What we know:
The protein is 33% helix and 18% strand. The protein is α/β, with parallel strands linked by helices. It has one domain: TIM Barrel. Strands 1-8-7-6-5-4-3-2 form an 8-stranded parallel beta sheet. The longest helix has 15 residues, at 153-167.
Amino acid sequence: xxxxxxxxxxxxxxxxxxxxxxxxxxxxxxxxxxxxxxxxxxxxxxxxxxxxxxxxxxxxxxxxxxxxxxxxxxxxxxxxxxxxxxxxxxxxxxxxxxxxxxxxxxxxxxxxxxxxxxxxxxxxxxxxxxxxxxxxxxxxxxxxxxxxxxxxxxxxxxxxxxxxxxxxxxxxxxxxxxxxxxxxxxxxxxxxxxxxxxxxxxxxxxxxxxxxxxxxxxx
Length: 219
């Protein structure tokens, strides 16, 4: 399988050394940097905001794949765009009107991502799907790193791939949550082309990031 991309989640990084951690990821072969933004409201955890992303921007030229788990999300989209996000991914449940938020991201010249929780159906976004650049399938319920992969989402990935191929859409299929060496091949074979991984990339093989990224691309 060609064009597999790895988007390591800095949620599993050493937050006291984030700049250096991002450099390690770039040197290790990461294709983009996955930034989990949590507000303690939409999900039960707090992480970082636009000022931190802005400060991290100077450490790499890799795209920032920014996943906004915040509600209401619409009023913060511009702040994250200006901070240096390249892909802005939002949840349909977190905005009053998904179409308006998609149009705003597009107006700001950023790639449009929409995330589906394990219990969110594809039909929720079907009316906007042709306007989306990336669909993020959550394989855990968002909020914390290190959770166990929910195998039922494999069918959702397969269904999304069928919709993509039938209609000749160009969106990426990204999967986030519990992706590891025992399940990544099944995820890719189901139709994903971008893997988000935190714990596996930072912790396996004694923290050998380059080796871990190579394994995740080895299908």
